[in-house]
Amino acid sequence: MDDNDKEVRLSDVLILLHTAIALTATVLLILVARIEPLIALLTGSIYLGLATGLGFQGTVEAITNGFGDIMSSIGLLITFGVLLGSLLSATGALRKLTESLLRVFGAERAPYVFSTSMSSVFPAIYTDVLLVLTAPLGRSIAPRIRRDGTAAMGAALILGSELGLVLVIPGAGALAVAGLLNVPLGSMLLFGLVVTVPTALITTFLYKQLLERGLWNRNSDELSPQDAPADEPVEAGAESAKLPSLGVSLLPLLVAIALIAAGGIAKVAGVSSGPLAFFGDPLVALFLGVVGAYFLAWRSLSRQQAGNTLSRGLRECGSILVITGVGGSLGAVISKTGLEDILAGYFSSNALSPLILAWIIAAVLHVCIGSTSVAAITAAGILAPVLGSIDISPLLVALAAGSGALFAVHVNSNFFWMFQRLLNLSTRGTLKTCTVVTMLASVVSLGMVLALSVVL
């Protein structure tokens, strides 16, 4: 090894070391020193940028661009989703839907229903949008569950949002990985469901066992009642008003979901323009849902109450958007360090079983860079060139990469912070739900993929 190679290797090691220090310090500042997440995340971002040689200007640009990129991609989606949830609560839709679900399935089965149905039926809906739409319903069901309902429902929402993203067509990650590895979309859909549904059920069961053994501490893992989202009091106060039926009150939500799903199917079919692509865009679909829910609330309640509900929803959006954007800033700084390329260079296609290797690559990438889709896509891209020389199905490699990409959603993910605010949890509580349940799901789904490899 010449001097240049040694310098490159030392530089790579230092980047890995500084990334580990930044992530560990951010977690410790929040959990031990009890520093506000906003301050801790920015501190970690600044340290990492300066320590890895981005410089003062480069660090500031990475932080601001990361914040801006997140806001431009999902800022309005989060806003419209929160507003739609607030309006549905005001018209009694969430309460009625909750009561209907509880009558059919019972409170204790609700986490199983949510985790399986969200991941298998709604993968076309963007992860963040799906979480925003379902969080108010999860919060309303949680108190009816016998023990640790907030944790159980939170885990179900995470599973429902993340599993479909990388394992089920038309999830964005699943589509990208299938394309990279030339996996037929029909096969990816079928066997993605074969892996996803049992994984959702088994992981939900295992997580509930952890709750039974004292994982959750309501006093430290949930925020105080006065910090709860503002939509629930509106619903309670509206009970005496002439509210629409469940079907009518849910219509704005159902229309938005149907449009988003149609748009996802159109995208798979290669339709990128025209009315279907336009109205199927999540931004347009959610906006139409908000408009419909607003006029429904105006007609059922009053113009003033509908306006007050929107105002409360907008206030709730503020903290969600800021902390989500700052989480995106940390991810952007990590990306600028070149960590993704460094990690890719350390893996050899001959080191392990291709399935285990795909899982490890995706898991390590996700822990370090915080993006589920990017982790799955990168792992698939690393192994794609050697698939022709190994005797294993590209479908299994695609599923293994998606499985590994689920591993440990934590503080460098904007999804982590959005989930925290929507479920009204402390950072400790979010680690116990978001991080723990994705670790479990990743390992369980790997087991399912390895079991499939026996017969495929």
TrEMBL record:
Keywords: Membrane, Transmembrane, Transmembrane helix. The chain crosses the membrane at residues 12-32, 38-58, 70-92, 112-133, 154-181, 187-207, 250-270, 276-297, 317-335, 355-383, 395-416, 436-455. It comes from the Bacteria. One of its GO terms (cellular component) is plasma membrane. The keyword Transmembrane applies. GO terms for molecular function: gluconate transmembrane transporter activity. InterPro entries: Glcn_transporter (IPR003474). This is H+/gluconate symporter-like permease. It comes from Halopolyspora algeriensis.
